[in-house]
Design goal:
globular; alpha+beta; 8 helices
Length: about 425
């Protein structure tokens, strides 16, 4: 079991892509491993034959544990050392599986796992019976259709899930509030939680239970930054770089984190750590749900470098090409509302960080500009920002100073391009 990310210590076997006795080539994917960061295909380290599979599907395997045994340099059909006598009947798994699922791609198998669909029960509509994503979605919708029973009880929370702990906030005393049972109605659509949605749900509940969150807001006049962006955006575009306001905000945030290290920290049991590296997590929406890839050592990058990094992780996130390392190690998070956002809103802290900055939509507004001995009215692009911080270790004076510093850098256009 390889190390699939700096913070990943174990993984779950999702699906074997080979069987015992199969010949494999070096770098050929042989098994899918699921982690809380991402799903990955583990390649064969050598040419050879799969002699023994030691980790079953759904088994949790620690980093460094043995997944399977490969006889390097062997050919398919050759006898392995200590193999059973030739007269013995072949093991059932070595014979062609007549009742197994039809052929499918890794992305389709991943969709099936997240939807709780057994591909054995899916009839492929593609060429040669190949199972497509539409086939999986159709089977998932069929399974989720409301039954004829008068009521459907919500699934019991898993014992280890923070959602279960949330049902008894008063300690030993049971809650007086009870959620009424769901009763299906015509037109309702029941959508099972995907694996990623379940992880997100558990994470958000855990964060709300763990961190005493406080939200503070700031209004930021982006006129100076907008002028700087307008001056250089065409030049950057020719170089293949999209010069966005997000890149400027990330640069300001990274610099402010160096000046206010209490926000670039994590809480331990009876202490907290001011982290050395400034690694910014950027929330990106994908068809499979929200992910937070990381820009490492963001304080060492220029606006150009940050703009290029944002484009790179956004494209790889949409294409499903992020690795576990891309999603681990963030020390502070930034989220933006996208093209159809709203004015302002507070975000939930992404654990184990102690702060998250949520950007609002940029709107042109009438502002008061101080010029020498008079105040003038002007129309400038304005953005609201919301900082959510963990009050266990971050005091209001530090949080307010941090957010003020970000606004100051943006309002002064204090960047080198």
């Amino acid at each position: 079991m390889p190390q699939l990310g700096e913070s990943v210590v174990e993984g779950t076997v999702g699906k074997w892509l080979v069987s015992e006795g199969d010949a494999v080539t070096k770098d050929q994917p042989i098994v899918e491993i699921l982690t809380d960061k991402a799903d990955s295909e583990v390649p064969s380290p050598v040419d050879g034959v799969i002699r023994k599979i030691l980790a079953g599907v759904d088994e949790v395997v620690a980093v460094g544990a043995v997944l399977c045994e490969i006889e390097a340099g062997a050919k398919a059909g050759a006898s392995a050392p200590k193999a059973a006598p030739a007269a013995e009947a072949p093991a059932p798994e070595a014979a062609p599986d007549k009742t197994g699922p039809g052929p499918s791609s890794p992305s389709v198998r991943k969709l099936a796992r997240e939807s709780g669909v057994d591909l054995v029960n899916v009839t492929g509509s593609g060429p040669s019976g190949r199972i497509t994503a539409d086939d999986v979605r159709a089977k998932s919708a069929e399974a989720a259709a409301p039954a004829s029973a008068p009521a459907i009880a919500p699934p019991a929370p898993r014992a280890e899930s923070p959602l279960a702990a949330a049902t008894s906030l008063a300690g030993a005393r049971p809650s007086a509030f009870k959620v009424p049972a769901y009763r299906p109605a015509p037109g309702d659509e029941v959508i099972p939680f995907s694996r990623r949605r379940r992880i997100i749900a558990d994470h958000m509940v855990y964060s709300k239970q763990t961190s005493p969150e406080v939200v503070t807001f700031a209004e930021c006049d982006l006129d100076a930054t907008a002028r700087l962006r307008e001056k250089f955006k065409v030049q950057y575009k020719k170089e293949g770089v999209s010069l966005t306001y997000l890149a400027f905000t990330l640069a300001a945030t990274a610099r402010a984190l160096r000046e206010f290290p209490e926000l670039n920290a994590r809480v331990l049991d009876d202490a907290y750590v001011k982290l050395r590296d400034v690694n910014l997590g950027i929330a990106v929406d994908t068809p499979d749900g929200l992910v937070v890839p990381v820009i490492r050592n963001a304080d060492e990058l220029t606006v150009r470098g940050l703009a290029r990094a944002v484009t790179d992780i956004a494209v790889r996130a949409r294409d499903g090409k992020l690795t576990p390392d891309d999603l681990s190690g963030k020390t502070f998070s930034v989220t933006n509302p996208g093209l159809k956002g709203n004015l302002v809103g507070g975000a939930i802290i992404s654990q184990p960080n102690v702060g998250i900055l949520r950007l609002g939509t940029i709107k042109k507004r009438v502002v008061v500009v101080e010029r020498e001995d008079q105040d003038l009215m002007a129309i400038h692009p304005v953005m609201y920002m919301a900082l959510t911080y963990d009050h266990r270790i971050v005091d209001g004076v530090h949080a307010n100073g941090f957010l003020y510093r970000i606004s100051e850098i943006l309002e002064q256009g204090d960047f080198e391009l």
